[in-house]
């Protein structure tokens, strides 16, 4: 697998800015959910780094759970609108306060499908917390309660986000130079 520097267009959000914003979100959630013992539901796999850093900044009691969702029909860089739950929750969320933790919202299909499914299970509340939001790309409306950063319509990677399943480990958000990426493929 190639070194990411071969196709890194620019560092969009450096590590210190990511961590500073995540600390703010953690503090905000800690204030908003006092006495509510929320469940953070991480959407695998992209949300993993965000979840683990965010939860360390949340100072109130909470639990974590995982779901995996895939959208199919088109390649890895675009949602098709058809979303499949490949890993469901192991707990009953009825009367619980659920916070969905996502890496990025693009068209909105993925998070909308999860939101609608979990809503049928009668949680006390449910909201969306996303690290990144490409709001210009939205095709279905999504109410987002917590947003880390609004970003332009560029393909990004690192900090949980993959390119063809790699590079999730990078501690920053980078923009892919698609010409360079495809030239070396
Ligand atoms: P949506 O269903 O179109 O909102 O897409 C959301 C999912 O697409 C995210 O959970 C990501 O897995 C993936 N995705 C969207 N944009 C990007 C990107 O720029 N880089 C990496 N993955 C992305
Ligand atoms: Mg992905």
Structure commentary:
- This protein has 185 residues and is α/β, with parallel strands linked by helices.
- It has a single domain (16-153), classed as 3-Layer(aba) Sandwich (Rossmann fold).
- Helices cover 24% and strands 31% of the residues.
- The protein has helices at 15-32, 48-56, 109-119, 178-183; strands at residues 8-13, 39-44, 63-72, 82-87, 97-105, 125-133, 146-150, 156-157, 173-176.
- The strands form 2 sheets. Strands 4-3-2-5-6-7 form a 6-stranded mixed sheet, sandwiched between helices. The protein has a 3-stranded antiparallel sheet with strand order 1-9-8.
- Helix 2 links the parallel strand 2 (39-44) and strand 3.
- Helix 1 (15-32) crosses helix 2.
- The longest helix is centred in the first third of the chain and has 18 residues, at 15-32.
- The mean pLDDT is 94.
Mean pLDDT: 94
Number of strands: 9
* Shape by Cα distribution: globular
In this entry the ligands are: inosinic acid, magnesium ion
The count of helical stretches stands at 4
What's the SSE pattern?
Answer: EHEHEEEHEEEEH
- CATH domain fold name: Rossmann fold
Strand order of the largest sheet: 4-3-2-5-6-7
- Global structural class: alpha/beta
Poorly predicted sequence stretches spanning 5 or more consecutive residues: none
Count of all domains: 1
Strand content: 25-35%
CATH class: Alpha Beta
Radius of gyration: 16 Å
Termini separation (Å)? 10 Å
> How many strands, what sense, and barrel or not for the largest sheet?
6 strands, mixed
CATH architecture assignment? 3-Layer(aba) Sandwich
User: In percent, how helical is the residue content?
Assistant: 10-25%
């Amino acid at each position: 697998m190639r070194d990411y520097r071969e196709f890194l267009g620019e560092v969009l959000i450096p590590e210190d800015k990511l961590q500073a914003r995540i600390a703010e979100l953690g503090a905000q959630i800690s204030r908003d959910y006092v006495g509510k013992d929320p469940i953070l539901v991480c959407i695998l796999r992209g949300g993993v780094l965000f979840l683990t850093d965010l939860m360390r900044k949340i100072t109130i009691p909470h639990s974590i759970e995982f779901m995996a969702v895939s959208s199919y029909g088109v390649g890895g860089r675009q949602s098709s609108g058809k979303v499949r739950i490949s890993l469901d929750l192991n707990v009953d969320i009825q009367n619980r306060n659920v916070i969905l933790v996502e890496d990025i919202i693009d068209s909105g299909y993925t998070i909308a499908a999860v939101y609608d499914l979990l809503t049928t299970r009668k949680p006390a509340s449910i909201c969306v917390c996303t690290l990144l939001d490409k709001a210009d790309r939205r095709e279905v409306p999504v109410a987002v309660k917590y947003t880390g950063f609004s970003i332009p319509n560029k393909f990004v990677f690192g900090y949980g986000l993959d390119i063809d399943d790699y590079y999730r480990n990078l501690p920053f958000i980078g923009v892919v130079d698609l010409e360079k990426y495809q030239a070396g493929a």
